[in-house]
Amino acid sequence: MVGAIGKSIELSETILKEILDLYKDIRELSDEEILSCSSDKPEKLFLRLDALITLDLGSDVISILLNNQELEPIFAHINRFRNLYTVRLETGYAKEILASQSSWDVLEKFPFYKNYLKLVRTEYEGFELKAGDRISFLGSGPLPLTLIIFFKYYAVKGKGIEQNPERTWLSIKTLEKLGLSENITIITGNHLSINPIDFLDHGTGVKALMIAAQAEPKKEILDYLLKVIPPGCRISYRIYEKGLMKLLNRDSLLNLPEGYREYKRIRPEPPVYNTVIFLEKKE
Fold first, then answer.
1. What string of DSSP letters covers the chain?
2. Which of 8, 102, 214, 235 has the most CB atoms lying inside 10 A of its own CB?
3. What are the boundaries of each domain within the chain?
4. CATH topology assigned to domain 110-281
């Protein structure tokens, strides 16, 4: 037992060194450099980070790192980098789609396309949706892959909400190029843009609302939604709670606001990283 504890401490120190080395390199980059610089430095850092956070580590190692309060601002900074690089990646592919004569081929080469196929299937089945249903997705980004896959594979129509106007414009143009504009719409906004009228069900109302992993802060979003969604409305949100991903995304530690019940939690299977939590507003 003592030997096992010693090995956990030793491993946590090795992991900690890599985290600090990454942080040292990442903090030298401005947001603008992460999003658009011509150097390959952001890509190399992203690949290093991805290799690190997907390591299969024991819960004891994670606990040692998780309980180190001094690391919280470092994890927050690294997570900021990861989110921005994801935007860069999606933006690049959206622009490639617009420039290509084979737009669907480009889309399917997106590095995490297979992850999204499995993730969307999880949400489709978890919500018990059917063809023709409508969903809303908060935090749809410059390349609304979730909504695209929902319609392509399940004929579920969607509405994306994206707070950055430039990313909204790019996603609208991408949907036009893919021929999906009639079935998927994108608006500029945030959780405050969600209106009770969206959920009035006359055959066209929203059947489910999804919250992206990058949409934050989760508690504020969920608190607000309690005020506008009808009883029985279903919501899902994505978190990371496996390995070091749990450290980068503190939403995995979220205490659910009173007024919801969690009716399902589906944990990831490769190649998916996200746990999907399904909620329902209490009657």
1. -HHHHHHHHHHHHHHHHHHHHHHHHHTTS-HHHHHH-SSSHHHHHHHHHHHHHTS---HHHHHHHHT-GGGHHHHHHHHHHHHHHHHHHHHHHHHHHHH-S-HHHHHHTSTTHHHHHHHHHHHHHHHT--TT-EEEEE---SS-HHHHHHHHHH--EEEEEES-HHHHHHHHHHHHHHT-TTTEEEEE--GGG--GGGG--SSSSEEEEEE-TT---HHHHHHHHHHHSPTT-EEEEEE--STTHHHH-GGGGPPPPTTEEEEEEE---TT---EEEEEEE--
2. 235
3. 2-106, 110-281
4. Rossmann fold (3.40.50)
